[in-house]
UniProtKB/TrEMBL annotation, chain A:
One of its GO terms (biological process) is transmembrane transport. It comes from the Bacteria. It comes from Streptantibioticus silvisoli. One of its GO terms (cellular component) is plasma membrane. The keyword Cell membrane applies. This is Sugar ABC transporter permease. Residues 89-302 form the ABC transmembrane type-1 domain. SUPFAM superfamilies: MetI-like (SSF161098). CDD domains: TM_PBP2. The keyword Membrane applies.
From TrEMBL, chain B:
Its main location: membrane. InterPro entries: MetI-like (IPR000515), MetI-like_sf (IPR035906). This is Carbohydrate ABC transporter permease. It is found in: Cell membrane. Keywords: Cell membrane, Membrane, Transmembrane, Transmembrane helix, Transport.
Length: 311, 309
């Protein structure tokens, strides 16, 4: 697909680059430099600063010189005496597990079915895809419409609005599951679309050959389709992890991420816009989030770009 | 549910589409079961939105008396107009426009320039540069927000640009973080796309004495229209749907874009589920337009990112 391969390290640059005039060099530097500067200043500098500030104690109000360095104390406090941290980690892990066990396989299953030549396939695809365009904040409002105790769909449907009311969103053992169900509603369509694109790139002649050899549908999927979906599987894995770490909007809309809806992302936010602004402590939480996400991002990118640099 | 056995001979003749015989047609019972399953799933998928729409059409008094799962009473657009007027939704929609449009244009412009440099020239730092952008886009926003928030409070802006006098709580601040964050994804997608454009095209332009800028602006960029359309659709949806940045970096409630403003307005204006449903559906309209009119672009933008060109 790539006609112009990137030069591997050490090979001489092509003539074209040597022909560049001085002015062209300035233009190229600006074209790549300005966006790079912006991304470095607003994304990577803060990311590094998160790590740096995580070793400090700073309310954020005094000048930069009022920062006190406290070593690993923030981390120690997070892991020992911060009551919101264990539930937040637990919910993030549950979120990840649910995203991994429900929308990912179900999205794949739907994609495989819709990839068959059946009638109305486009219509089915569109409907299943619909929630993907909605914002997660909006899905938070939909969650309230469906699960709120007296005005919600579920309790009205089951006749639980009077007397014994199931408080889906108020009960700290139930609410995270209600929220995740709605998050899955959106995530499934997302995963399905990714897999559908992957399935389209599977060489049909391979399937044909397998089918002529007498393989049944299941065998074709197992031995032909699934192996060629490998790149998409990696993408889906990364999307699943990142989306579950980013989860924020839905729970924040419902109750600002408290009472059973704690998430790492919410804790970070609470420490900067809450009443008690604790920059150092918040940064330590952010660093934990950063490390977890980079543990997935870096291997993913290395695999993507290694393929790229191969001649 | 996987299609058992392939019976090419039994394939119904009514299929007029170009059929690749590889994906064999399953026998009728399996096919019917599949349709029942898919139609059922789709129905379940539509329930939240249909229910929201149905609830929004009914006055609160009726649902309070008859229950939310009931028929009868009045139906009308009263909740929609109430939400639209009482909560001043047009004002917040305008805020969304002021943020989304500049952010979208800047993102695509900057990303296309980076992609052009990375895809059309062989510099050693190209891959590192692309990784920097792509990885930045994949980070959770919360991992960088704490220092960013402080940084925004420290950077002054002239009064005519921001009433707050600093990057924090200002439109330019919100626009810039969207641009910085989204450029990564767009640069990744566009560089893959630009690499598929034959090198000869650029070289021919160079032979004719075209500068690098003209090569970018007049040769390469016009060829990128499909990918630009796809990314514009996708990025519009993402930036419009943003809740987190606007909640944290825009403290003045009146300046928030509509997606984030909805949260403040609940409780103040939207006191019952009927009004919330109406407001939520109004806020969803731009994304529903994307869904109905630009779904192909949206999907191709998503999958271009996943499929590497």
């Amino acid at each position: 697909m790539t006609e112009v391969e990137l030069a591997p390290r050490g090979t001489p640059k092509r003539r074209r680059t040597r022909r560049l005039s001085g002015w062209d060099r300035v233009v190229i530097t600006l074209m790549a430099g300005v966006p790079t500067l912006l991304t470095v200043a607003l994304v990577w500098l803060p990311a590094l600063a998160s790590v740096g500030l995580s070793f400090s104690s700073w309310s954020g109000y005094g000048s930069v010189s009022s920062i006190q360095w406290v070593g690993l104390e923030n981390y120690k406090n997070i892991f020992t005496i911060y009551p919101e941290f264990p539930p937040a980690i637990e919910h993030n892990l549950e979120w990840l597990a649910v995203f991994f066990c429900l929308p990912a396989p179900f999205g794949l299953f739907l994609a495989v079915q819709l990839d068959k030549r059946i009638r109305f396939s486009r219509l089915y695809q569109s409907i299943l895809f619909l929630p993907v365009v909605l914002s997660l904040a909006l899905i938070g409002f939909m969650t309230e419409l469906i699960f709120s105790p007296t005005q919600g769909l579920i309790n009205n449907l089951t006749g639980h609005t009077h007397g014994h009311v199931t408080d889906w969103l108020g009960n700290p053992h139930l609410n995270i599951w209600a929220v995740m169900l709605m998050a899955c509603w959106r995530q499934t369509g997302y995963v399905m679309v990714l897999f559908l694109a992957g399935l389209k790139s599977v060489d049909p002649s391979l399937k044909e050959a397998a089918s002529l050899d007498g393989a049944n549908g299941r065998q074709i999927f197992r031995h032909v389709t699934w192996p060629s979906l490998r790149p998409i599987n990696v993408v889906v894995l990364v999307v699943t992890v990142i989306e579950s770490l980013r989860a924020f909007d839905i729970v924040y809309v419902i109750n600002k991420g408290t009472d059973g809806l704690e998430l790492l992302s919410v804790l970070v936010t609470d420490n900067i816009i809450g009443e008690a602004s604790r920059i150092g402590f918040g940064s330590a939480l952010a660093t934990i989030l950063l490390v977890i996400s980079l543990a997935f991002i870096v291997p993913y990118l290395v695999s993507v770009f290694r393929k790229d640099s191969r001649p | 549910m996987t299609a058992p056995g392939t019976l090419p001979a039994a394939a119904p003749a009514r299929r007029s589409r170009k059929a690749d015989r590889a994906r064999g047609d399953s026998p009728a019972p399996a096919r019917i079961a599949l349709h029942i399953f898919l139609a059922g799933t789709c129905l379940v998928w539509l329930v939240p939105l249909l229910y929201a729409f149905y609830t929004a059409l009914r006055p609160y008094a009726d649902t309070a008396r008859r229950g939310y799962v009931s028929v009868g009473g009045h139906y009308g657009t009263g909740n929609f107009s109430a939400a639209w007027v009482q909560a001043q939704l047009p004002h917040y929609f305008w805020n969304s426009v002021l943020i989304t449009v500049p952010a979208l244009v800047l993102t695509l412009w900057l990303a296309s320039m980076v992609a052009f440099v990375v895809a059309r020239f062989r510099f050693r730092i190209n891959i590192a540069l692309l990784m920097l952008f792509t990885a930045g886009n994949l980070l959770p926003q919360q991992a960088i927000v704490t220092p960013l928030f402080k940084l925004y409070q420290l950077v002054p802006l002239p009064q005519w640009l921001a009433a707050s006098g600093k990057l924090d709580d200002s439109f330019p601040g919100l626009i810039l973080i969207h641009v910085a964050f989204q450029t990564g994804f767009c640069a990744f997608v566009m560089s893959n796309y630009m690499r598929t454009i034959p090198a000869e095209l650029g070289e021919a332009a160079v032979m004719d004495g075209a500068s690098v800028w003209r090569q970018y602006w007049q040769v390469i960029l016009p060829l990128c229209r499909p990918v630009l359309a796809a990314l514009a659709t996708l990025e519009f949806t993402w930036i419009y749907n943003d809740f987190f940045w606007a909640t944290v970096l825009m403290q003045t409630g009146a300046n928030r874009p509509v997606t984030a403003a909805l949260n403040n307005l609940t409780g103040e204006f939207f006191v019952n589920n009927n009004l919330i449903a109406a407001a939520a559906l109004i806020v969803a309209i731009p994304t529903l337009v994307v869904f109905f009119a630009l779904q192909r672009q949206f999907v191709s933008g998503l999958t271009l990112g996943a499929n590497k060109g």
